[in-house]
Design a protein that fits this description.
Blueprint: H1 10-42, H2 46-69, H3 84-87, E1 154-155, E2 164-165, H4 180-192, H5 197-206, H6 213-232, H7 234-238, E3 243-253, E4 260-268, E5 273-278, H8 283-290, E6 296-299, H9 303-308, E7 320-323, H10 325-335, H11 342-357, H12 367-398, H13 406-416, H14 418-421, H15 435-451, H16 457-475, H17 480-493
Parallel strand pairs: 3-6, 6-7
Antiparallel strand pairs: 1-2, 3-4, 4-5
């Protein structure tokens, strides 16, 4: 049979689909026979077992079709439906958007001389002073590169002393030809906008700059060398928080082959983000990432974190874990496709989030205001959230689900993590979910999809450094490009100096 990927003709594809459908029916019949024979030999009720397996197969098929063809969003339809008559005529889109950051260029458009004739009487038209009809247009001025030739003025002393030369501007590399601004631009394009160096090389050539990917990489590596002390200062900034978030995602090391799966581990607080790319996803690696942190760590249900924080022969665990309601909700959203009863628990979880939306963020406050916000969060959670949490547990214990079903997996996931899911009722620092760190991992995931990973161990180190510093800058409200330039210039002027992003609050 011709491989399906090579079929171009529609009629051939239909014939192959019919053959596959017939083969699938034959295999289902064979499966039913084997299940009955197996149950007979084991002395089981063949009909009941067959029904159970058929239900499981139907559920798996429904979930697979949802993953292949359904919407990837976890957003569920709103329970409140607006009547069509009440909608009226709605505006499409958001309309003209204000652009306060763009410089404004005034362009006066006069009539051509041949058109300065009245169309009614044939007389000449005269300019109407101060009267124009105005409109706006967003345009683009293409980026361009310049070759700056520095002429350092020399000075001499009339008395014959040694001559003096004006100092050179700061250089990224001793004797290098590319400016610090250029290196920052390359870093921002790769790690901020996910453009691989090969793609940047083609773009720059189109704009008149002949440069190869190795030269671009050299600028990134040199810039990272100057910023290394600032990167190494991030963990202490993250771990000063009473609560941190942790997560991980895969990252490929493309070292002379198809690539090995490494992992980007991330710890984050409300003020800073710290990434490390390591070869393992084990509990020992999780312990290495968390170090001696003694606060509360928000994680998902991945077992490595629980292994890393268990008491051992070396001593008791230094930190405690809390778990994420968003991951719990995600599993019930998936199960709802085949178990409509999940709508009830999803509504209860939604009410938890509605309560949290009205509470102040203690991380954004200080002093007495922060203490008052923490007390208020705790009081509201005990009054309003605690009954909802009790209702969720009561609902879960009342459910009956087939072993291996999506509903059963969602219930087991939630109940196994229950003690860590309810800590937020007694600790006001704890949020409902781990979304903060998932947002900080998003750029790494997008970068991985665009340039697939790193080509060397040094590449993983440089990637972790730039993602960490740029995302920390965003958390503090500082533009990542401006921050990188400021930190690099400070490090070149004073080697080993640490420059962290500054908050604009």
């Amino acid at each position: 049979m011709v491989p399906l990927a090579q079929v171009k003709d529609l009629e051939t594809a239909r014939q192959m689909a019919a053959l596959l459908e017939a083969e699938n029916a034959r295999l289902h019949q064979r499966l039913e026979t084997l299940v009955q024979e197996n149950a007979r030999l084991k002395g089981e009720d063949a009909q009941a077992r067959l029904q159970l397996e058929l239900v499981q197969l139907k559920e798996q098929l429904a979930l697979m079709q949802q993953r292949l063809f359904g919407a990837s969003s976890e957003k569920r339809p709103s329970a409140v439906q607006v009547a069509p008559a009440a909608l009226g005529r709605q505006q499409r889109g958001h309309g003209p958007r204000a652009q306060p950051e763009l410089p404004v260029q005034e362009v006066l458009l006069p009539l051509d001389e041949a058109d300065k004739v009245c169309g009614l009487c044939g007389g000449g038209l005269k300019e109407w002073a101060g009267q124009t009809e105005d409109s706006e247009e967003v345009s683009v001025v293409e980026r361009h590169f310049v070759l700056k030739r520095y002429r350092r003025q020399k000075y001499r002393c009339p008395e014959g002393c040694a001559p003096v030369t004006a100092p050179a501007p700061p250089r990224l590399l001793q004797g290098g030809r590319y400016s610090v601004d250029f290196a920052v631009h390359v870093a921002l394009q790769k790690y901020g906008f996910h453009l691989p160096l090969a793609r940047q090389e083609r773009m720059y050539r189109r704009e008149g700059l002949g440069v190869d990917t190795q030269t671009l990489w050299d600028q990134l590596s040199a810039l990272a060398h100057h910023l290394q002390p600032s990167y190494e200062a991030l963990p202490s900034l993250v771990f000063t928080s009473p609560l941190i978030h942790a997560d991980e995602t895969h990252w490929y090391l493309l070292d002379k082959g198809p690539g090995k799966k490494w992992y980007a581990w991330t710890v984050a607080s409300a003020r800073a983000v710290y990434h490390r790319i390591l070869p393992s996803r084990s509990g020992a690696t999780a312990r290495q990432v968390l170090g001696d942190y003694q606060g509360v760590v928000m994680v998902d249900g991945y077992a490595a974190y629980q292994t890393a924080t268990k008491s051992s022969a070396d001593g008791p665990a230094s930190c405690s874990l809390v778990f994420c309601w968003a991951h719990v909700r995600r599993k019930f959203v998936e199960a709802e496709k085949v178990a409509p009863a999940c709508a009830q628990v999803l509504s209860l979880i939604g009410q938890l989030y509605a309560i949290e939306a009205g509470l102040p963020d203690p991380h954004a406050l200080e002093g007495e205001l922060q203490a008052a916000a923490l007390a208020h969060r705790l009081a509201v959670r005990r009054e309003k959230s605690a009954p909802l949490v009790a209702s969720i547990r009561e609902w879960a214990l009342a459910q009956r689900a087939l072993p291996g079903s999506a509903l059963r997996k969602a219930l087991e996931y939630m109940l196994e993590l229950w003690s860590g899911l309810t800590v937020f009722l007694s600790n006001a620092w704890v949020p409902l979910d781990n979304n903060l760190v998932e947002r900080q991992l998003r750029d790494m995931v997008l970068g991985r999809k665009n340039h697939y990973g790193s080509k060397s161990l040094r590449g993983t180190e440089v990637a972790a450094l730039f993602y960490s510093l740029m995302e920390t800058a965003r958390l503090c409200g500082e533009d990542p490009g401006r921050y990188l330039l400021r930190a690099a210039l400070a490090a070149i002027a004073t080697p080993g100096s640490v420059t962290l992003p500054s908050s604009t609050d």
